Amino acid sequence: MGDLLSGQLVVATLVLGVIYGLVALGLNLIYGTMRLLNVAHGEILMLGGYLSYWSFTLIGIGPLYSMFVGMALAGALGALVYHFLCRRVLSASKLVEQIEANSLLLLFGVSIILQNVVALSFTATARAYPYLDQIIPIGNFQVTANRLVVLVIGLAVCVACILFFRMSMTGLAIRALIQRPDAAALVGIDVERVRLISFSLGFGIAGLAGGLISMLEQISPFMGFPFTIAAFVVIILGGLGNLYGGLAGAFLLAVIEVYGVALTSASMRSILLYGVFIGILVWRPHGLFGVRGAAR
Amino acid sequence: MFKRIVTTLAGLAALLTATAVGAADPVKIGFSHSKTGIFAAAATSQLQSYELWREQLNALGGLNVAGTRRKIEFVHYDDQSNSGKAVQIYEKLITDDKVDLLLAPWGTSLHFAIVGVIERYKFPVVGNTAASVQLRDLKAGNIWFLTSLFPDRQSVELAKLLKKQGVTSAALITNLLPYTQENKKFVVPALKKAGIKLLVNEDYPPNVKDMTALLNKVKNAKPDAVLAYTYPGDAVLYVKGAREVGLNAATQVVLLGPQYDFFAKIFGPARNGLLTMGHWTPLRKDWPTAQKFFDDFKARWKTNTDYLDGPLAYMSVQILQQAVAKAGLDKNKLRQVISSATFKSINGPVRFEGVENIALPTMISQIQNGQQHIVWPADQATSKIIAKPAWK
Q1: Testing the interface with B: which of A269, A270, A272 to mutate, by most B Cβ within 10 A?
Q2: What is the reported pTM?
Q3: Is A21 helix (H, G, I), strand (E, B) or coil?
Q4: What residues have CB less than 8 Å from A192, skipping those under 6 apart?
């Protein structure tokens, strides 16, 4: 029982929660503002991981710097994808269900293309690099430095996003668009511009998350899909389109994953995870913080 | 005039015939490759070995087909790491592309999948990256396995090694994927027979993202040895987690992971002392072409080969090359030669009895000073076993 209170497990939970939170945040932002199901989200994360890997191995620039370049480049890629692909889906589809179905197919195609372009360019071989891998003792437990860095930066980005959504005009406009798309347009919000920003920001956060994750695990062209699945579980748990709910869902998932294993067995992980997932959806069909009829 | 035209035509015909005889058609060799899907990252070195071999032989004039040099042409398709797709591809390669020879796909499950097709068409294939007892026990007549890492024999040898190291207790954590599960099935009774008490025996799912809680349990059990039956991806999580929680058992076996180049790049000297599966190393002086393969692979692909799949894939084409030199492309003759001859390879001599390579004993390897050594059994070893130093 003492183990359950150990700092080791608390840090493991926080690191995992922050990773899930970051990955889910971008996905949720795009879904919330536009109802686009971005199944290529994991591939953007993968591109961010590759950028950090090559920056470190070719020119010696660490992921602490390159992740922000990755964020900017992923954001630019997001703007292009939105402008040339997703805008058409939004203008051609009248119903939310139609937007969801069309975007799912379209972005699935994007995900396959990105996987294969990277596999053809760099081969499918897994790649990794050592970065800040010294062990740091903290009281009666110890943590690898790169996990602490992921925790600190991940939390900082999450807090920055929350402040952005609460304090800045653009952030408020994004939230307005999530809550009442029609009313947002009526009060003078430039919907097209806000959508473009949301899409870019969603891609950008995924690119940054990829840089962070590349410090912790190996990267390959096909690493993205499990993250996309995890992100969908998180945002459905929290409530589709609810940004804060998504963050809560991410930490809930991490708690189940770490403490569920500690209390039962590692083989129970998926049973616990999806058991809780199904249970919550039965109890609250729109997720923990979701509201019937509207994504927030 | 008429006579001149006839003479010219006759000359042209003679020239064309001579050209056709001089430049024999290329040999078409087909296979499916897991270019995408869950096996893609692990399957790359297999394709790289195949390509290296093709380029090397084509530079020498081609494959010796019973005395005639013929250039090698590959026909390959992406099986998407999908057994069903692999079956379709091998059927197409045989019936539609009409390839002369076949190479193996990647991994046990795809080897298993194509057995039906190659048996139906009686098309011989030298397997490489597969080691399943279930597959071996099928006793198919047209596929052979090079590796000696079959879980039943590997488990017995590992238990012997642990006993010799004075291990009396162990913790076993196992990925829920087929190869690791098959190893678990055999190692549990082998440990029991060797008198080694199993203190922890837990499975974990392939999509695990954090092992902290599991490794805390292992650490608290204080086993003499840890057997981490991993796949390469979760092997990284294991080592990172074991370092972090301070799991410092003197004997740690990481089944799949330490053999790969990316693993070496992440952990460098930290992986020293890890025991792992493997029967190949460039350090064996009595396998003179082993170091050459290692160097050629690095020169061609600018990366190190792994110590499992890359060498196994290269061995399989070496055997096919020698068999084709003797038997040509006739499937019956090829089958007969592969089943009965002794071949040279980068992993020493190869001789099949049934579907198994009986010339290669089951071995266990260990990472020492950044290199993979064979440490078990003693008569095959390139170095003595060392206790794993504490994580740094």
Answers
A1: A269
A2: 0.88
A3: helix
A4: A87
